[in-house]
Specification:
The chain is α+β, with helices and mostly antiparallel strands and 600 residues long. It has 14 helices and 17 strands. A 5-stranded mixed β-sheet has the order 2-1-5-4-3. Strands 7-6-10-9-8 form a 5-stranded antiparallel β-sheet. The longest helix is centred in the N-terminal third of the chain and has 66 residues. It starts with a helix and ends in a 9-residue tail after the last strand.
């Protein structure tokens, strides 16, 4: 240990820095290396799981499509009146030859076309429970034929049941090479009881395509409600010894889809378990991760080799960089010491174009920026002082205007000019509300009071009266809204909806609310707008169409929309509804806040 310390003291500074940097990098690099491998493994498993889920969804869709096809085909046959009448007649008596021929030529031929036109249908057969039935291939058969099929059993057939993985054996001389699955439905009526059985069959590889594409890396089977497993017996995977025991020890809710990563006979696999309600069964799919695991082991060896080589290269590179850095490092440190002493005019000498040179340039820019910020701070303080002075002057000017209006109002009252006195009162309130600076929102009651004063002055201009009808609940009046949000809407209604009519009219202001929002409707009985004008105005308010400063272009409503959304977010704002020649309604939407008990 002592010898190691002496050895370390003899190392140069660049060697010490290099060893320190490498030592600090080794542990994070190793951790990073482990994390990268884990992420690659997890990403590989996640991708496999996504593919597995997509495959199960696709399989389920295929099954549902085939089930629907079988159900629809069954309904088509059962809804064939001629077919049902013929079966019912055969049940009771022998049918004349001529009638049999006509039935075969017309109805059986049409039914056969239905089967042949659907590539997913293998066959549709009707087994009639009558000894007098005349078999009409490939649709109509004697009930005795049914007894040759493996799923017939003891003759107790549940109507609407599914029969899986059987061969077509109704003809002794011909056995189909396909594995079949069919929907078996009883044919009956009220008077005669059971007339026969209809078998709608499709191929197993069409109903369950994944079963017959299984290999040693993935395996699929279908499990019916009786616990029977249907799968490709030709697959011989190492982990696939006894399929019926694959789910042992795995907790699965059979009523819900289940996806998991488990081990079977020591091999990592992904398992997917999907209920198929249409068939009263379940689809089980298992994907082996053996190839992925082997690939990850090879990748781990490659990464480890790259890591070792990279560390050697990094050691020599860092040592080289440290040697260059130390030459100019002290030059920059000297400049920093001068700045510390208060000399902000000092500059770092040119240090080249590499990182150290860039550091020197950045220090020079920082020193220049500090000087500029100091000057800007001084100018900012001056602007603040100037603003305070101007605000004080404006306040003085506002008081001057209020005092002059009060003097004129007193003169009007002395001369008994009460209309002029009332107009001056409204004007004073209007100016006081307009000039009062607020950094926050106002309550709706204040905005309504401002609108009343505004209309009182507007009515002085016209030969007709504009009546203001207000219907606002108490809890709405105390809600907050940006100042001067409702008055521009009223002004817009007068200028563009009422003024051209030049007759007595009313502006209605009412409100309603839900749990989250308040809605204030401002409606005028003016000339209204066409659908095209309303659409264009809505686009201007939404900012989809650029607005200019000209009157009547929606700029006022656009400003109201922007201010409401700045205060309350994009879920709030205004909407316009109008009918040409009738009315225009502007709906203002703001948040509702429960303010019961608050004092104002």
């Amino acid at each position: 240990m002592e010898a190691l310390r002496k050895r370390s003291r003899q190392l140069k500074l660049n060697q010490k820095i290099t060893l320190f940097v490498i030592s600090c990098l080794v542990i994070p690099i190793i951790i990073f290396y482990v994390i990268i491998l884990q992420n690659i493994e997890q990403s590989s498993v996640d991708n496999r799981m996504k593919e597995l889920k997509a495959s199960m969804v696709q399989s389920q869709n295929t099954i549902q499509k085939n089930v629907e096809m079988c159900n629809m085909s069954t309904k088509v046959f059962l809804n064939s009146k001629n077919l049902m009448d013929y079966i019912s007649q055969v049940k009771e008596e022998s049918v004349p030859i001529q009638q049999n021929l006509e039935f075969y030529k017309n109805d059986i031929g049409n039914l056969e076309k239905i089967v042949n036109s659907n590539p997913y249908l293998h066959q549709i057969r009707i087994y009639v429970d009558s000894p007098s039935v005349l078999e009409m291939v490939p649709i109509l058969y004697s009930y005795d034929r049914l007894k040759r099929l493996s799923w017939y059993g003891n003759g107790e057939i549940e109507s609407g049941s599914w029969q899986f993985d059987y061969s077509d054996t109704i003809f002794p001389t011909y056995i189909s090479e396909y594995h079949l699955v069919s929907l078996v439905t009883e044919i009956s009526n009220y008077h005669q009881g059971t007339l026969g059985i209809i078998e709608v069959a499709t191929r197993m590889d069409l109903m369950f395509p994944d079963i017959y594409t299984s290999d040693e890396n993935q395996w699929t089977c279908f499990i019916d409600d009786k616990g029977h497993y249907y799968y490709d017996t030709d697959v011989k995977a190492e982990w696939l010894q006894e399929p019926v025991k694959l789910l042992d020890g795995i907790k699965i809710d059979k009523n819900k889809p289940h996806y998991d990563r488990v081990q079977i006979d020591g091999e990592d696999v992904l398992i997917a378990y999907q209920p198929i309600k249409e068939l009263n069964g379940h689809l089980l799919k298992i994907v082996s991760l053996k190839n992925d695991t082997q690939y990850l082991k090879r990748l781990e060896g490659i990464y480890l080799g790259v890591l070792v080589i990279g560390l050697f290269i990094l050691t020599f590179f860092i040592d080289y960089i440290v040697k260059i850095i130390l030459r100019r490092f002290y030059c920059i440190m000297e400049t920093i010491h001068q700045v510390k002493e208060g000399d902000l005019q000092v500059q770092v000498p040119p240090c080249g174009g590499d990182e150290i040179g860039e550091l020197g340039n950045q220090i020079n820019e920082m020193l220049s920026r500090i000087s500029d910020l100091m000057e800007e701070g001084i100018r900012g303080e001056r602007l603040v002082k100037d603003s305070e002075i101007r605000a004080l002057q404006n306040q003085i000017n506002a008081h001057f205007i209020y005092n002059v209006l009060e003097s004129i109002k007193m003169m009007a009252e002395i001369n008994e000019e009460y209309d002029i006195s009332d107009a001056l009162t409204s004007l004073g309130k209007l100016l006081r509300y307009s000039m009062k600076w607020v950094s926050h929102n106002v309550v709706i009651s204040e905005e309504i009071e401002y609108i009343k004063n505004y209309l009182a002055l507007i009515n002085l201009r016209f030969d007709y009266n504009i009546i203001l009808s207000i219907n606002l609940q108490e809890e709405i009046l105390i809600q907050e809204i940006p100042k001067m949000s409702l008055q521009p809407i009223v002004e817009n209604a007068i200028c563009h909806g009422i003024e051209d009519l030049a007759e007595d009219t009313t502006i209605y202001i009412k409100s309603y609310r839900n749990v989250e929002f308040c809605f204030i409707e401002i409606t005028d009985s003016g000339k209204g707008m066409s659908e095209e004008q309303v659409t264009k105005l809505r686009k201007k308010i939404a900012g989809e169409i650029e607005t200019s400063g000209a009157a009547g272009n929606g700029l006022g409503l656009k400003n109201v929309q922007d201010r409401i959304q700045i205060s309350f977010g994009k879920s709030c704002g205004i909407n316009v509804i109008s009918k040409e020649g009738c009315y225009t309604k502007v709906i203002v939407k703001i948040p509702y806040k429960d303010k019961v008990g608050e004092k104002r």
